[in-house]
Every structure is written in structure tokens, then in C-alpha cells.
Amino acid sequence: MTTRLVRKAIFPAAGLGTRFLPVTKAQPKEMLPLVDKPTIQYGVEEAIASGIEQVIMVTGGGKRAIVDHFDRSLELEHYLEERGRSDLLHILAEVDALSNELVITYIQQKEPRGLGHAVWTARLLVEGEACAVLLADDVILNDGEPCLKQLIDAHRKTGATVLAVRRVPRNEVSRYGIIATAGAKNGIYEVTDVVEKPSLEDAPSDLAALGRYVILPAVFDELEKGEPGAGKEIQLVDAIKRTIGSQPVVGIEFEGDYYDTGTVPGYLRANLTLAMKREGLREELVPLLQELLETSAEGSAPRGL
Predict the structure, then answer these.
(1) For burial by CB atoms within 10 Å, which of 1, 7, 79, 160 has the most?
(2) What total number of domains does the chain contain?
């Protein structure tokens, strides 16, 4: 099947981030740091490494910090130059380079009507092409081929809408969209249904669809109908589900380390895990963690906290 290149990626970034209040009252949740980089930057870097040419940021009110992050700060650069801080200037240059490697376009979702509505908001910029969707909350890191690149390769082979899937513990299936499948061929699952947050008894498998998609134009046609789903919001997974039967939908059990930063425990876990992998930080954290474990067992507070 002949397919066009996947050139564009949508980043829905209009959510209110209520799980992280009060910090997200004035700070976009996508800008919360994982060690020393905002979560959304990891996704943009993945898009670049996957061959994406244009990123479409769907934002809402109070998201100016995202725009500023990917723009140059001449005042800050001048300040650092005067003080000879070439090390920090190098860090800024790395961020600036991201917006030089692709086009970043911003469009506003006027009201919070769900993930599907946020994706639909970008329809005119997609121009009837298959495109990628990345959720900044889901950080997926891989020393080899990026997760999105794995999905794009599967789309080229199949011409299908592609979901990034991973097996989750059976007792956690109610947190995810779970796929039903007719089996796999060469590591690609044929998706026959998607059940949003099923009970353990109703879950068709333990394969959860996570925050990476390549979607066909037919998905936008379904989103156009504006049919509300869970939470009375327009859901992306529901629109994908309605294309099954008329359009191919497949799942890829991707390779890479997955971090769910959309909840406070998941965010803290991701920060700690990535910090422990960072040379220089790991040496400082190991003694602290050992002290925390010891003092927790003793029921007292650690020194210095």
C-alpha cells in the first residue's frame, strides 16, 4: 500500500493540569520539568528524531510559557554573554536549535472539550494528510529508534492508523484504553476494538494504547461529528474506534522506557528515575535515598528536611 510521509505532528497542550494545582494555576503542566527539561521538550525532540517537519501546538489560555520556551530570549543571552557563561549559552542554543529543525505552529483551542476536540482543532493545518499525535504527559525515551519513528514505519508498511501499545498489569487496565486484537503479524497487531477504561472483567486484553498515534484523515471525519464520550468530552480514541472496519487500525508494541508524568506519583517517579541515570546527580542522590529509607523505617524525619 502506498502511503505519504508523515510530516506533521499535533501536540495537544491545552489541558488545565488540575492534578497539579496550585502550581499549574500559572504554569502549563507541559512545562513542568523532568530534571532540567520541560516535559514537552522531550516530545519535540522525539518528533525531530522521527523525521517530523512541522509541530502543531494546540494551546489554551495561560500557555504563553510554551511559546516563550521555544523562542529565543535575546535579553537572557545578552546577560549570559556579559558574564562569560558559555556553558549556559550552549544550553540555550540547544533549545533554539529545535525550532530551527522544524516549523512550530501554534493554534488555540477555544474551550476545553476533550483530547479529540484539541486534535480536531488542528485539522486545517494538517491538510488531509496522515499525521502524528503526541501527548506530552507520556514521555518515551529510547537509545535506539524513537517510539514515534516505530509508529511511522508501521504506517508506511500498512497504510493504517497506528497506536502505540504496551502491556500493563491486569489490575491497571481500568486506567487506559485497551485494544482488542485479532492477532499480530511481524509485531503489528490488527486492532478490532478499543475499550476505554474497562473493568478488569470487561478488558479484551492487557494491551494499553498510550500517548503516541499516527492517524488517518478518516479520524478527523469522525471527530468532525463532535460526538461526546467519557466525561462528556470528545475523545480521540472514540473517533479512532469508529473508523475500525472502514479503515485499517493497528497497534505497535513499542520499544522504549515509558514515563507517565500525568499524575503526581508518576511525575515524581519519572524525575527520580531520570535523575538516577544522570552522572553527577546519581552520586548525590544515592546517599540521600539511603538516608530516606533508613529514617522512614525508623519513623523519623531525615536530616535537613
Answers:
(1) 160
(2) 2
Residue 164 is assigned to a structural domain of this protein? yes
Task: Domain of residue 151: give its range.
Answer: 8-262
pLDDT along the chain (305 residues), means of 10: 77 88 90 94 96 94 88 93 94 92 92 89 92 96 93 95 95 89 89 89 92 96 82 85 94 94 93 92 89 76 54
Q: In which residue are the cell numbers 497497534 written? A: 251
In a domain, 142, yes or no: yes
Residue 304 lies in a domain: no
**Domain identity same for 250 and 274:** no
pLDDT digits (tens, 9 = 90+) for 206-226: 999 999 999 999 999 999 987
Left, alpha or beta for 105 (phi > 0: left; psi -120 to 50: alpha)? beta
Q: What's the CA gap between 220 and 226, in Å, rounded? A: 10
Output the CA–CA distances (angstroms, integers) from residue 94 to 27, 97, 134, 151, 277, in the order listed.
22, 5, 21, 26, 20
Measured from the Cβ of residue 213, the count of other Cβ atoms closer than 10 Å reads 24
| Rg of the chain, C-alpha, whole Å | 21
Indicate whether 3 belongs to any domain.
no
Helix axes 147-158, 39-49, angle to 10 degrees: 40
Tell me: do 16 and 96 sit in the same domain.
yes
